[in-house]
C-alpha cells in the first residue's frame, strides 16, 4: 500500500487505544482510528512504516450490526470527545475488557498465564458522569464566529460548540452558554495557536457530584487593552451569578496564561466571586479541590475504582473498623499519590501511609484533605518518585502505584522492585503502559494475581485497570540482579515488543508463537533476555523448545525490526 491510497475493508476488531484493524479485500491490514468492530469503512492511507499501514477514516460505508440506530449525543461524529457513542454500553464494556486482557496476556510469561481476570466494572452513570471539563475558545471554521466547546474530530484548530454534551449535566451547559453569549456580544478575539495572538483561551468548569458545588475558571492571555479587563470580567461574573443552577455556584475565577502550549497553565489566578475551591466526597471522605487539583473526573466511578483497589489491598492489610492496626504495623507507600485519595483510604488500617507526588499543589491539597478527615498517620512528600524514595528512611510493607499515563520511569521501577514487598497494587489509566511495566515486574520476580478493569470514561476509548502483583516464593524462582544498562528500556521505542513480533509472524507465516519461543530465539541471537522467560518452574521440569519453522519465522521478524 502507498501513502494517499484509498482503501475499503471490514473492521475486524479494535485494539487499545482506539486502533481499528481493517482487513481489505486483498488481505491487507490497516489501522484506522474511530472505527467500530463490524463496520465497513473507507480510509485514506496516511502512514506506511515498518510494514504497518495506518489510515484516516473517510466514511462508514456499512454500519455494524452491534451499533444502535442513533447516537446518544447530537454532537457525536463531529466532536472528538466520545468515540463509541453508537455502541450499546454493554458492547463498550466487553470491547474494553477484551482489549486489556489481550495486552496482559501478550506480556505474560509462561508460568504466569493463570492470573484471575475479573472482567470490567461499569460506571454508575453512563451519561452526565464528568465532574470536570476544559472547554476551548476558537472557531468552527476559518473566519467563523466565536465558538466555545470541544475540538473537532481530527482537527487541532477547529472547535465545535457542544451545548447539549451528554457527559456533563445541565449546569455545565448553563455556564458554557452564558459565557459564550457574553463574549460573543463583546466581539473579543480567541487565542490563535499559530499566530500566538488573542485573548480568550479556555473555560474550566468543575462540579462535585455529592455536594453540588460548582467552580468556574476563565483562562485568558494578558493581551487586552489596559484598563478594560476589570470591567469585562466583572460583567462576566455578574451574568454567571445571575443564572439558575441545580447546584451551587461557589467560585468564579480568572487565570492568566501566556504560554505557547495549548494547555491550561496557571500563571496567576484571581478570585472574582466566592472562593478558589470546592468540596467533593468519596467513600465517606471529604476532599477540597482547587481548579488545578488532580482528581478523578468521574466521582461515582472513582468510588468503584478505589473500592476495587481496596479489595485487592485487603489481602495484605486488616479490614473493618475494629482492625487491630498495632498488631499489623504496616507501612504503606502510595506512589504518584495525587491529592492523597488512596493514601487516606488506607490510613485507618495502616501504621503509616507515605504519599509521593511530583506536583506541589497536589501535595498541599493532600495535606489539607488529611487534616479535613482527621487523619494523623499520613505523610505527603513533594518530588519525583525516582529521587524521593532514596530519601525516605522508612521501608514499605506494601506499595500502591498510580502513575501518570506514561507509566513508571524505568529507573524508578527498578528502585521500587528492590524494596521486595510481598504485594503491590498497580492502578493504570493506560493499559499499554501497564503492560510494558508488567514485563519488567515479572522478570524481577513478581507475578500477576488479579486484574480488574473499571470503566471511568463511558463512550470513550479510555479505561482504568487495577492489577494485584505478588512476589514469587524464593524457592520457586530465580532472582536475578539486573542493572539498568542491561534492561535497555530507554531504547524501547526502537525495539519491537513481544506483541509486535507475534503479530508480524502470524501475518507473514500464519504461525502462532509464544513469548517463550521468542525469548529462546532472542537468546540464540545474542539479545539479552530476561531470566524468567526461559526458566522452568522446577529443576526437573521439561522446557519446551522452539520448533525450527517457528525459529526461522521469529528470526525473520527480528531482522525486519532491525534487532539482528
Helix and strand arrangement:
Layout: E1 6-15, E2 19-24, E3 29-32, E4 40-49, E5 52-62, H1 89-107, E6 116-121, E7 132-139, E8 146-151, E9 159-161, H2 170-185, E10 200-207, E11 213-220, H3 229-242, E12 248-256, E13 269-274, E14 278-282, E15 285-289, H4 299-313, H5 325-328, E16 331-335, H6 341-346, E17 352-357, H7 360-372, E18 378-382, H8 385-388, E19 398-401, H9 410-418, E20 423-428, H10 431-443, E21 446-454, E22 464-471, H11 484-487, H12 498-509, H13 515-524, H14 548-560
Helix pairs in contact: 1-10, 12-14, 13-14
Radius of gyration over C-alpha positions, nearest whole angstrom: 26 Å
- DSSP, total strands: 22
Biggest beta sheet summary? 8 strands, mixed
Helix content: 25-40%
Low-pLDDT parts are: 320-327, 474-480, 482-494, 530-534, 536-541
Domain module tally: 4
